[in-house]
Write a structure and sequence with these properties.
By secondary structure, the protein is α/β, with parallel strands linked by helices. The chain contains 14 helices and nine strands. A five-stranded mixed beta sheet has the order 1-5-3-4-2. It has a two-stranded antiparallel ribbon with strand order 6-7. The longest helix is centred in the middle third of the chain and has 15 residues. The termini are far apart.
């Protein structure tokens, strides 16, 4: 924007080093635009300050907080935290990491600016601060988007406009909540990236988990994962990006895990015959050993396809009711 004063990259880098997770000008501008004009900087009793009830960040890195506390102790607090007053107490609009760091230092008071903001503004500002600065993990961010939309309504596009981000960012994040819970946890623990799991959304749940294990064990890139999933969806077959002989981990009835060949020519032919008999439905045949042990998985998308599978296997239509 014309006339808007922004930090040069050199100064921003310097402030990152000496002041830790400071509020960037864009975040400060948004807070001032969306709330009433703040008071001048004041000092507030830390015992009267509460966390933002709409804070999407649930986990604060202890090492990062300790580093920030040491930086503040050496250099001072370069940017006051932003608060709103609720009765005789205060809630944090922005700056919870700085507040937590100050508590570690034993501060009884902390520099702050007091703004007027309603609950909706608080929720939006908490999202904006975390999106534009040190990111939440993707699942925390997706959950915060979903909670906001459930509380205040609106479309993905409307939320994106209020947060001043792309609509695709909101939609892509919300799609992650469709993943099985174990894959969401893998994203939170940074075992899988959002790019990896977004590619898996095209697969049924049991197959998402199966392929995710291979991504982690073989170290597939996002591009390799996307190509693998595309081949699997289009043809029912895919070659492991890392191995000429594709392998899968299977668990037998005794709970023992073994790695076996994924596709022999015979297995491929059998799957093709099953698909043909079932009218093109997706079928996966996995052989656990050379004695014929394994499993057959048939995927159906609706009631009609299930009835087709039932009648094909049982030779009669299923009684309903």
């Amino acid at each position: 924007m014309a006339g808007e004063r922004r930090l040069g990259t050199g100064l921003k880098a310097l402030l990152d080093r000496v002041g830790g997770n400071f509020a960037e000008p864009e975040v400060v501008n948004i807070i001032e635009e969306r709330t009433a004009v703040p008071t001048d900087k004041v000092k507030v009793d830390t015992m009267k300050i509460e966390a933002n009830p709409f804070q999407p960040r649930k986990v604060f890195d202890e090492t990062g907080l300790e580093e920030l506390a040491q930086s503040i102790q050496t250099q001072g607090l370069l940017q006051p935290i932003a608060l709103r007053q609720v009765g005789e107490r205060y809630q944090i609009i922005a700056g919870e990491r700085r507040f937590r760091a100050a508590l570690r230092l034993g501060w009884n008071e902390i520099p702050a600016q007091i703004h007027e903001a309603d609950d909706r503004q608080m929720a939006e500002l908490a999202l904006t601060e975390n999106i534009q600065r040190r990111d939440l993990n993707a699942i925390e961010k997706a959950t915060s988007f979903a909670n906001y939309l459930e509380t205040y309504g609106g479309t993905h596009e409307e939320l994106a406009k209020r947060l001043e981000i792309d609509r695709s960012t909101v939609s892509n994040m919300l799609r992650l909540l469709k993943l099985p819970i174990q894959l969401q946890e893998a994203v939170c623990q940074e075992q899988l990236s959002p790019g990896h799991v977004r590619a898996l959304l095209k697969l049924p749940e049991w197959e998402q988990i199966d392929v995710a294990e291979k991504i982690q064990s073989e170290g597939w890139s996002v591009r390799e994962t996307e190509r693998f999933v595309q081949d699997l969806v289009q043809t029912g077959e895919a070659e492991s990006p890392k191995n000429s002989e594709q392998t899968w981990n299977l668990v037998d009835q005794d709970g023992n895990t073994r790695t076996v060949a994924r596709q022999s020519e015979q297995v491929q032919q059998l799957e093709q015959e099953f698909r043909h008999c079932l009218g093109g439905m997706k079928v996966k045949l996995m052989q656990a050993n050379d004695k014929g042990k394994g499993k057959l998985v048939i995927c159906f998308a609706n009631h009609a396809e299930f009835e087709h599978v039932y009648s094909s296997i049982c030779g009669t239509k299923r009684a309903v009711g």
